[in-house]
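Standup notes
- DV: blocked on the single-chain target, sequence here:
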Amino acid sequence: MLAEVSGIGRDAGQFIFLPAIVVDSRGDLYTVEVGTGRRVQKFVRRQNRSARSIRYTAAVDTTGLPGADLVAQGLRDIAAGRETAAALLVLIGAPRLRRLGLVVPSPPTERPDATPAVSPEHRLYALLAQSDADSAHSRYNALIRTLVSFERAGECVR
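- DV (later): unblocked, structure below
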């Protein structure tokens, strides 16, 4: 049984437009919002043994963190199998994002049974260079700075 979340809104535990919900191996829920919400929220599973019910409480709310919309877009793109700049950026930051409590799915090329592939760092740079080689370096650095800002801010709100 899922406890009441809070309804429609922008606060922790509330949603505006929720196209994706993921459950990890521990039973924790992750939600990815789009539209004006643009955030990822984690809900930690709390089981009440006497009542045999399950309650979820918000654990990670990325609302207002710098780059939250970019990270949320990257998570959606990875889930959809799209290799975009946002998806590659999330893959670059995957270890640290996972430590923050976000579920970062592994694309087929990062699974243990796959053949080694070019790193997401090199793939991101190549993708940026395709559209404009002259500005690829500065755009790459700007994206990495955004990712680092998100990760540092996420560590502060944990």
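- Follow-up: The chain has one domain: 20-157.
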